Structures are given as structure tokens and as C-alpha cells.
Amino acid sequence: MKSIYDYLIIGGGIVGLATAMILGRRFPAARIALLEKEVDLSLHQTGRNSGVIHSGIYYKPGSFKAGFARAGTKSMVEFCRDHGIPHNVCGKVIVATRYSELPILQNLLDRGVQNGLPVARITAEEVRDIEPYVSCLAGVKVPTTGITDYSLVSRKIGELFVAGGGMIEFGCEVNSFKTGISVQTVETSNGDYQGRFVINCAGLYSDRVARIAGVDPEARIVPFRGEYFELVPEKRHLVNTLIYPVPNPDFPFLGVHFTKMIDGSVHAGPNAVLALKREGYHKSDFNLRDFTETMAFPGFWKLISRNLGEGLKEMHRSFFKSAFVHSLQQLIPEIRSEDLVPCKAGVRAQALLANGKLVDDFLIVKGDRALHVCNAPSPAATAALEIGKSIVDQVA
User: Fold this and answer.
1) In this structure, what CATH number is given to the domain that contains residue 331?
2) What Cα–Cα distance (Å) separates residue 145 from each residue in 16, 53, 87, 91, 269?
3) 187 shares a domain with 324
4) Alpha-carbon gap, residue 332 to 136, rounded angstroms
5) Co-location of 165 and 215 in the same domain
6) Which of 178, 174, 188, 318 is CA-nearest to residue 256?
7) Distance CA 269, CA 207 (A)
8) Which whole number is the average pLDDT over 365-378?
9) According to the model, what pLDDT value does residue 252 have?
10) What is the spatial distance between Cα 306 and Cα 391, in angstroms, rounded to a whole number?
């Protein structure tokens, strides 16, 4: 049995790390440990993130996501600047390539204005002043969008947490909880840890950890793999910043787009296909328990029935590179198949309700001397510091 901690944080992704760091700053005398099942920090959603510092243009005004994104854009840029982490507030353009998309583009502009963003409608010519190779009818300029490397951000947050007296324990996969009179005992693959308060930031496994702790989040994590290609170096000049299509309002993902990464490379994607394993980064990855849980969940089949057409398109893009290339050519006609090489995929932990509706905002569930972060969708990386503050406020 390890020492008794005042706080235990489960999960070494960027949200768990930010929560741990801020908790340590708020309560400097507290004993705090972060438990991570892997051998290093941020190896999953955070480490496979696109690196975008999101502005918040897509999110419903008044939602947690909108507020977190707006504040997170500022605090994340400040954090990167203060600690010498590479970043670039390069802006992005969202472009309409069909006349039917123009009303949706206007709706996005209106939403951005409602969210307090300095967005602007621009003509096709003005889009080409920013992105010369884009073909479109019109666009929206979002100047506060940026890029960084969230693995570097996470590493720095971890260093600051430990420097402040915190502990990070690796190889700690959670197996069970035991609730005592004054402490929670978290049984892990690296021994038992006792804490007076537990914060679950387990990402892809957050719902499972919550249920182990005796809490029903009323949602199930369904993993969606996002597959990317990368432009070969001699074609990187085709993209200067970030180029997004107008998203389908009836589909919960943003569509394939171009992202200029902080290292100068350009990623194209992602599509969104069901992963057969919660950490299923390859098409062949399969886990019987993860697959069975998804197939047995009624909400999954209701989601599929509502989005069958778009879902089939995503699968088609996954198995046929030509379809992926065709989608990208709607934005940049000069793109050819030989310009693209595969790069690493990510998996999005999407919380889904039994009625088939996606949990569209952050979902934080209270337990017995515990908080469970059961849905932290994009812009979670952008807003990690703000989410951490909110969680610590609830704990306090």
C-alpha cells in the first residue's frame, strides 16, 4: 500500500496533467499523485492530436465548449510563449466549394460573431490571397486559430507539476475501486493507491473507470479513428495555414481538411471511422471487449441509422485512397494521389447516449469523493488549462 494522497488524478493526458498542475498550485500543501497506465505521458489522444489551437467558431454559443475554447485560445498561447514552446497563431480559412454551402458558411460566421471572435466573411479572391491554391466560392477567415505541439505542452505541464511537489506514477492501469470511510483505494496494475479525492481523466477509458467506481455516466465511449495523410515535402507549398471545408451540419465531424503543423509538415484529414479497439490506431487493431461493448450498446445502432450515408462515405475514404484524394481536391484541385503518404492516426473518445445522440459538450459526473470527466471532446487540448481550472473549482 502506497502513502495516502489528498488527491489522485487518473490519466496522464493533457487534461489530467493540467488538472494536476493547477490543483497543486491551488493547494500547495496537498499530496497529489497522477496515475498513468502507460510508460510515458500523453501517448494517446493528446500525443496524436492535430496540434490545432481552436478558436471556438463551431460551438454553440453559451456552451462549455464555446467558453472553454475562447478562453483556452488565449491561455494556451500565453503558456506556450511563457515556456518557449513552439506555436504560431497563423489563422485558418473555412471555405465553401458549393453554392449549397453558402448559407451554412454564413451560419458559421454568425456563430463566430456570437462567440465573440474576430471572424470575417471573405471573397474567393481574398481566400486566394491567403491560400493561393484553394478553389472556392467564398470563405470565413478565423485569425485566432493557431498551431502548437501538445506533446511538448504536456511534457512541460508534467515538469511543472512535479517541480511543485506532485508525483507521477506510470504503469498504473486501474482495476478496481474500494470506498472507505475517508479514503478511496484505487487498485492498479502497479499496486494500490489511497486518496481522499479522485479525479478521473482517463480519456478513452473514462466511462469504464467511472463504472468501476460505481458511477453511471449514462454515456458510453465509442472510439472513432481519424486517419491522416501527409503531403510530401515538395508539395507543402500548396498550404500556408489551415484550410477547412464547410462541415455537414447533420454529421458530427468537420470533414477532411489541411493542417500546417508546427514542424512545417502538412497533414490532410481526418476521416472518421469506427475503431474496433479503444486504442485502435490501425485498421487491423481489434479488441473483443471493446468491440462487444460498442456492438451491444443501443445508442451505437441509433447513431448509425441516423448517419448511415455519411458513415459509408467515411468508410469508403478509409479503404480507397482515391476517394480521400477526391475529397481533398474539392479544396485544392492540384492535389494528386502521389502527393500524399500515410501518417499516424488518432482515436477520438466520443461519448454517446443510449438514444443515439452524441454528447456534444463536456460531461463531468460527480461520484463519492470523486469527479469523472467522461467527455472531453475537441477543443479539450486547446482549453486544457481552462478545463483544469474548472475541475479544480468544483473540487474546491
Assistant:
1) 3.30.9.10
2) 24, 6, 11, 5, 17
3) no
4) 9
5) yes
6) 318
7) 27
8) 90
9) 61
10) 33
3-class SS shares of the chain: helix, strand, coil, % to 5 = 35, 25, 40
Q: Retrieve residue 59's grid coordinates.
A: 460551438
Residues 229, 329 within the same domain? yes
Q: What is the pLDDT of residues 164-213, one digit of tens each?
A: 999 999 999 999 999 888 899 999 999 999 999 999 999 999 999 999 99
Q: Are residues 129 and 232 in the same domain?
A: yes
Helix or strand (DSSP H, E) at 114: helix 102-114
H or E stretch including 75? helix 64-82
CA distance 327 to 166: 47
Please list the residues that pair with 364 across neighbouring strands.
373
**61 within domain boundaries:** no
Residues 6+ apart with CB under 8 A from 184: 8, 177, 178, 194, 195, 196, 197, 198, 213, 368, 369, 370
Backbone φ and ψ of 105, nearest 5°: -60, -40
Q: How far are the Cα atoms of 9, 18, 31, 80, 194 from residue 34, in angstroms, in the given order?
A: 5, 11, 10, 22, 12
Angle at 127 between CA 123 and CA 131, to 5 degrees: 165
State whether 214 and 224 are in the same domain.
no
Amino acid identity of residue 31, one-letter, is R
The domain of 190 spans 4-46+151-219+360-395
What are the residues whose beta carbons fall under 8 Å from the beta carbon of 152, sequence distance 6 or more? 85, 86
Cβ atoms 342, 268 nearer than 8 A:
no
Q: Report yes or no: 4 and 197 within 8 Å, Cβ to Cβ.
A: no
Q: Which cell goes with 257? A: 481538411
Q: Which of 228, 200, 221 is nearest to 343 (CA)?
A: 228
Backbone dihedral angles phi then psi of residue 104, each to the nearest 5 degrees = -70, -40
H/E element holding 125?
helix 124-130
How far apart CA 125 and CA 123 sit, in angstroms, is 5
Q: Is 128 helix (H, G, I), strand (E, B) or coil?
A: helix
Is pLDDT of 108 > 70? yes
